[in-house]
Amino acid sequence: MRRFLFAPVLLLACLPLTCQDAEAQKKFAGTWEAKFKDKVICTIRLKAGDQISGETAACNINVDANGDLQEPESTDQPDSPSPILNAKLHGETLNFEEKDGDDVLKFEMKLAGDGQAELRILDAPVPVKPIHFARK
Length: 136
Description:
136 residues, 1 helix, 47% strand
């Protein structure tokens, strides 16, 4: 009889974790934009679900030697969306990856207030200061 009582207790113990995960996903779900001089330089779209998922689109991020944003280079052709890979939530932080040709770029998006977030590019070849995003 003890064995059967133990299983429901384990299931109930996991419910708060599922709720937290769903709540964390809701905080990130939506369309996020980074702007430089009032021009959108990157869009991240995130969807809640069994696991958070999404894509990046039209990301044209240029930085100087100090890691500060610079005017993006103009491109004549629109950038096709790139799927977000290996998305993992850790409280107020979302870690994810994106393929760039043969390379894999790693990112960390951290909530910085209501509808505000900062994106860090991890392991970038040059240091990049956090990029501010606002939920649209």
